[in-house]
Automatic annotation (TrEMBL):
Family: Belongs to the archaeal flagellin family.
UniProt name for this protein: Flagellin
Function recorded in the entry: Flagellin is the subunit protein which polymerizes to form the filaments of archaeal flagella.
Species the sequence originates in: Natranaeroarchaeum sulfidigenes
A GO molecular-function descriptor: structural molecule activity
Membrane-crossing residue ranges in chain numbering: 21-46
A Pfam family hit: Flagellin_arch-type
GO CC annotation terms, alphabetical: archaeal-type flagellum
Gene it is expressed from: flaB3
Length: 310
């Protein structure tokens, strides 16, 4: 049996060496190093971001404000009488007597036992009144008895007064046959809620909560408004042994958040009987506490300054 042995020569088998191979090898190492550095930096950034997000989420869950109760303060709001018109009629500018005619208006003179008063504000606040205290009806002329020099330049104020109130019906000026018509208010009004007070505390496991950095969204019957500390709401330390208000530092702290409403406001107007509003407290950590305050269907049994649960 014959065995063939191949012949190996230097001319047929060569190793690839040279500067080009070295450059390619170094480039591969550099690329791998750069890629590894990017991956490490990215992983570190994602880890930090995840840690911050986790902390923020934890704060939102744990650092919450609990609303214990909501109280409303009762205020009596004046009713309104619109378009009460009077006319003063004098025979001459120097007449000793004149007539005051009640032209029209929503005020019911017949239901009140009082006096109709006319004041000449240009004559050192001199009073002019009538001898008649009977009910006044629309279209009726009442004789004014006093020696007063009426002139076209005088300003005449008209009032109806009883034992406890004075209702001002505006001014008749410029001319005696001209009437100044105004919207006026009377004291006999209705009870409404003028202020909302919410007692709050820390939720279990919460850290310190600085209510000065919180915001309150108030959604009332006529609109919405965002309130900030001392520019819409105040914080009172109701139970605050360390006197840290407005910062809740202990579980036993009880603070009162006061929201003052506006009698003639729009978004923050007084709340009437049967109305409700939504109050949302958002802390610096982003946690929210929401409550809906409901005014009782009747406030007639309360006096001004009384507190009612909402």
């Amino acid at each position: 049996m014959e065995i063939s042995v191949p012949e190996f020569t230097r001319d047929n088998d060569r190793g690839q060496v040279g500067i080009e191979t070295l450059i390619v090898f170094i480039a591969m190492i550099l690329v791998a190093a750069i890629a590894a550095s990017v991956l490490i930096n990215t992983a570190g950034f994602l880890q930090n971001q995840a840690s911050e997000t986790s902390q923020d989420s934890e704060d939102q869950v744990s650092n919450q404000v609990l609303i214990i109760s909501s109280i409303g303060e009762v205020a009596e709001v004046d009713g309104e009488v619109e378009n009460v018109e009077f006319e003063i009629d004098a025979d001459s500018a120097d007449a000793d007597e004149a007539d005051l005619e009640y032209l029209s208006g929503d005020f019911d003179f017949e239901s009140d036992d009082g006096d109709l008063i006319v004041r000449n504000v240009d004559e050192d606040e001199e009073f002019v009144w009538t001898d008649d205290t009977d009910p006044v009806t629309e279209g009726e002329s009442i004789a004014l008895h006093d020696e007063v020099d009426y002139s076209d330049d005088d300003d005449i104020e008209v009032e109806w007064t009883d034992d406890s109130t004075v209702w001002d019906f505006g001014t008749v000026d410029d001319s005696f046959d001209d009437t100044e018509t105004e919207e006026v208010t009377v004291e006999d009004g209705e009870n409404q809620i003028s202020e909302i007070s919410m007692t709050v505390m820390q939720s279990p496991g919460a850290d310190e909560i600085d209510l000065s950095g919180a915001s309150i969204e108030y959604i009332g019957p006529d609109g919405q408004d965002t309130l900030t500390y001392e520019d819409g709401f105040d914080v009172i330390g109701t139970q605050d042994e360390d006197e840290t208000a407005p910062v809740l530092t202990q579980r036993q702290d009880r603070f009162t958040i006061e929201i003052g409403l506006e009698e003639d406001g729009e978004d923050l107007r007084y709340l009437e009987e049967g109305e409700d509003a939504t109050v949302r407290i958002t802390t610096q950590s982003g946690s929210e506490a929401v409550t809906i305050v409901n005014v009782p269907q009747s406030l007639s049994s309360y006096d001004t300054g009384d507190a009612v649960e909402l």
